[in-house]
Design a protein that fits this description.
The complex is a heterodimer of chains A (343) and B (541). Chain A contains five helices and 29 strands. Chain A is mostly beta strands and 343 residues long. In chain A, strand 11 and strand 12 form a beta hairpin. The chains are: A mainly beta (343), B alpha/beta (541). The interface between A and B is large, with 56 and 58 residues.
Chain lengths: 343, 541
Amino acid sequence: MSAVHRVRLPAGAVVLVEVGHTVEPAETLATRRAAHGGASLPIAARLRRPPDGAAELLTVVPGAQVEAGDPLADDGHGHVVTAPEAAIFLAYDRGDGRALLAPLGETEPIVGHVRGEISSVEPDAIEIRIAGALLTGVGGYGRAVHGALSVAVDDPLDELRAGAIDVGASGRILVGGSRASAETLTRARAMGVAGIVLGGILDKELRDFEATQSRRREVGGIGEDFAIIVLEGYGKVGLDVDLFGWFKRHDGHMASLFGGDARLYVYGADAAPARRTFPRAGDRVVAHRRPYAGVGGRLSRVLEMLHATPAGIPARSGLVRFDDGRSAIVPLANLEATEPLTD
Amino acid sequence: MSASDPRTELAILLDVGSAWAKAGVIGRVRGEWRLIAHAAQPTAWGSAELRRALVDQLDRSGDPRLTGRYEELLASANRIECHTARRVGRLAVVAVSRELSGSAARRAAEAAGWEIVELVTLDDGRTLADRITTLQAVEVDAWLVAGGFDDAASPRAMEAAALVAATRSRGKGPVVWAGTAALADDVVGLFEPGAATAVANPRADARHEAADALREHLRGLRGTVVQEDEAHLASVALPRAVAELARRGGLRVLAVDVGARAAIAALAEADGSVAVRLHASGGLGGVARSPGATSRVARLSGDAGDEAAVADLLETIRARPATLPETTEELAVTQAAARVAMGAITDEMASGSVDILIGSGRAVACAPHPGQAARMLLDGVRPIGVTQLALDPASLLGPLGSLPDDELGEGLTLMSGDLLAPLGTAIVSRGGEPGGPAMRVTAHRPGWPATGPIQVRVGQIQVLPLPPGQTAELTIEPAAGVSLGAARRSPRIQALATGGAVGIILDARGVPISLPRRVDDRRAVIAGWRDALQREMERVA
């Protein structure tokens, strides 16, 4: 079982790895020099020229990257304006004769956040083959984190409660259930949890959490070392039973979670239960729309004719016997078949 | 096949959307081409399943002499197909100001079908370093740089171009300069040869916006970048069909297609010219991430739940676009989202009355009740004046629009009986005092006593039944301060109304529609409008 992860490289990055290298999550794959602030540099005054005239003496074009000491303008008579530090030359103002520079900081690492083998290196991206399983979700939050998986609820329909998170969860990626409140997310972050895997989440709570984190980041209180992935849907939506069982089997496995991209790599894992659209009679299924969102069951038969939903939309439908005891006719478009575990 | 076997000619019209595929089978019935089967299903189910659904229908309801042969007949039938772009063009926009050059560039790019991955402006509140870091991180197919007026060479505009020059990897995507004309050569010179192109500045001065040239250039560039057969793209085919309808009828026709991912609006004039807007993320799935849209949907959907519940549902629609609303609350939110999406894409089109307004896309054209479809069209577009409303229920317009020029007109003629489903005629007014008189309408039908005059108050919606295929002469008397769009010399306006599944809709809710602030009042008003559109239908039925 393997998956490929792509690490995008910004313009000007220096690659440090080659195809075939084995890399760890925290390993530096490439380096870059990020811009820090902006600086205004007098050009015309130093050349003792009028602003408009000095524009003709520039030796660099906007967008060019320069090193400390590189000439920016030269009048050909010994007057040279040089870059005081490494920077990007952005613009020259013919009105005041000053140049706008974006100084470049120290070299910064570009980290892949995954463990695997480099499979390709291109100027704008590095690809890493990962031995393990990839799960993709419907949404998420945060950048990249890695840690050991830890199942934190007893039942896939359980809500992940703040009280269930203690210092032992520090550095781990918790597998929650059907929902986590903004309070739970805040506590998880405070306790050093690396990430959370959820079946569902209330969009408003996720947005509220994002907003508080954004404000805290602005004042420098926190970094970007916490991520969330939502696998099934929005609202209170449980994880599918088979998928939850798969997580329990892989409790303790290392994983890398990319919240914003809604991707979760679990190392050394066998394939996660697969999903298939267009279920057939007899399939185990999971429903995706209210009032059965996230609930699993068995598609006992497919109706021959179109059947109108309670909302009045005619659709190809089937009778589902849900695990919670309910039975209902559900549009096939709202169901996914879940393939059984293969062990 | 023996000489006595029945023969038939079939063709499949296929519209493959990003989430749903719709197929119609047309065949000769008593010498006329008619739609004889129609099926829609999630695109992911595949073409074999779609064909099976059509065969099942034909076996049940088609010519019984052909039962058992439909599979073979469909396999050899002509396929007339259009599809949503399989790949969206991704664009980064860098501009001087958010309000002027940035918004003009954004609108032009969205209308040309680009997905804007990042919009950076020099007044966006970010630090210079943040802007550089952001642009270094984006992965796009092309870059658009805009800023500065044409009467001066603004250093800020040059700075915007320099940001792109500094952050774009060499050879990674074409650059379009749509800023100060005098800087064009300087900006083009910042990039490797052939990488950058200059087009006319959409904001040549502070007061005017002229983005046609930019929009057309971006539309062409998108075709180059996504590399798809243009003729079969829904964004090309649907407007072609609408333009032909307008030309043949000498009418002004607006068609709006709200899909799962994208939205298309095509406004065709009587001379056959057509203005097109394509919002790559303007479909139902894009509403969740559109700023302020969640609260608008919550306000419009009446008693479908609070804003938090609406937000969850909109995210579900985004994440699982092929699923269907099961509950009435979910349906109400979906239809409100369709109204918001329609409003967004038609908002920037040339104003003025249209003769026919056509709704396409599953949310609108397949609404469970025609009154719901009519309300989506009326609320989303607000077509001021007298307008025929119609649906494209079988999604035939797109596939027919992909036919070659010499076959398009013939195709529309042959399918005229099944192409559009008339909803009726809407009379939409604006102005007047809330609760005060808006218009008096009298309907004259040949052989029937006159209906009315019916008094319609500002904020009200009323429906007069008029079945499909029937017409009525209307005498409309707008109250003082109330307008139907065009200037009038007489206190009475005569208009012809055509019937449909809803009838004649007298809509005096104004443009734009104003809703009460109090939640309970708002719900009551929305429920009243809903009942007005649906109750009359039931009475006719």
